Amino acid sequence: MQRIIFSVICDIKTDQRIDKIANTLLKNGYEILVISRKLHKEKITRNYNLKLLKMCFKRSIFMYLEFNLRLFFILLFYRCNILLSNDLDTLLPNYMAAKIRRKKLVYDSHEYFTELPEVISRKHVKYLWTRLENFLLPKIKNSYTVCQSIADIYNQKYGINMQVIRNVPILRDNISDKLATEEQNIIIYQGALNMGRGIEYMILAMKYLKTYKLWIIGDGTTREELEKLSTENNLNNQITFFGKIPLEELSNITCKATLGLSLEENMGLNYYYALPNKLFDYINSNIPVLVSNLPEMRRIVETYQVGTFILSHEPKHIAEKIESILTNKNTYQLYKQNTYLARTELNWQNEEIKLLDIFRNIY
């Protein structure tokens, strides 16, 4: 049995992509060890093996240095056949260990890392990550990312053959009808609470939507200021911050909503070409969507006719778009009906076939 060591630096408690990939590989005959940081006091249980590193440094460059150094020595000595690196912030130790041990290496580019808002807003940080990317990416033989636009950029820039594994959810039974709520007009956002996600505009839009509620699920660097914004605008009776929700509970909440939001701003190419898993989660839960007018998200919405897009992030405009969708019952029901077809195509059961093909043909 081939053993894969999967290195990640993000929060595995809530990261759906990592869990889906690991479980797919596990059920298809691979032994899986996922190495990440220990971020929670409670024990995290998965079907595959976990090694969570308790870090001395919790953030900043010292956290990255500590994690990568410890990861490198683990990868040097732990039994494995394949190394799987999640994002640029784990790639260097994986590349070095694979080179020294002559192991196969696969790179999962979860983001267009050097175009993240948190990176491009800091000149020296962007310079360092870009130099690392320029050094490593041309040497990577086996790789995949989240959408075709980002794959095309990498392939053209570095002359590689990066493939696409989208962040689509596992197709489940139709849970939205089973768990229908009596409460109507619930708007939902789920995902990281970080800069560039458009969440502050969602909050301010609620001033024009007095009969609606906004559920915000997730955590991140901007949560405190978002909660403050809600309080300052007297919107706490309309807006609920759920914090992080375990993967196994998330869909039971999502399916109770009426409309799903994904309003990323055009802050760097990572967001410009964003194809976030929350968009597919909404569709999988049979919820129409309102998204940003960005190419990858707009393509999904227009192809499957499951919602519409905004033309600006002005809060009143967002409110008008939400009101238009939810008050036009014929249009809303058409969007909702179309999610039933879309979810039969945009699901992990279809996507994992491509993933397994990548791992069966690595070199």
Structure characterization notes:
The structure is a single chain. The chain is of the alpha/beta class and 363 residues long. The chain has 2 domains: 3-168 and 348-360, Rossmann fold, CATH 3.40.50; 175-345, 3-Layer(aba) Sandwich (Rossmann fold), CATH 3.40.50. It contains 16 helices and 13 strands. The protein has helices spanning 16-27, 60-77, 91-101, 117-120, 123-136, 148-158, 175-178, 199-205, 223-232, 247-254, 269-272, 277-284, 295-304, 315-327, 329-345, 348-360; strands at residues 3-7, 31-37, 49-53, 82-86, 104-109, 142-145, 163-164, 186-190, 213-217, 239-243, 259-262, 289-291, 307-309. It has a 7-stranded parallel β-sheet with strand order 3-2-1-4-5-6-7, with helices on both faces. A 6-stranded parallel β-sheet has the order 10-9-8-11-12-13, sandwiched between helices. Strand 9, helix 9 (223-232) and strand 10 (239-243) form a beta-alpha-beta unit. Helix 1 packs across helix 16 (348-360), helix 2 packs parallel to helix 3 (91-101) and helix 8 (199-205) packs across helix 14. It is globular and about 60 Å long. Mean pLDDT is 93; it is low at 176-182.
List keywords for this structure.
single chain, 363 residues, alpha/beta, Rossmann fold, 2 domains, seven-stranded parallel beta sheet, six-stranded parallel beta sheet, 16 helices
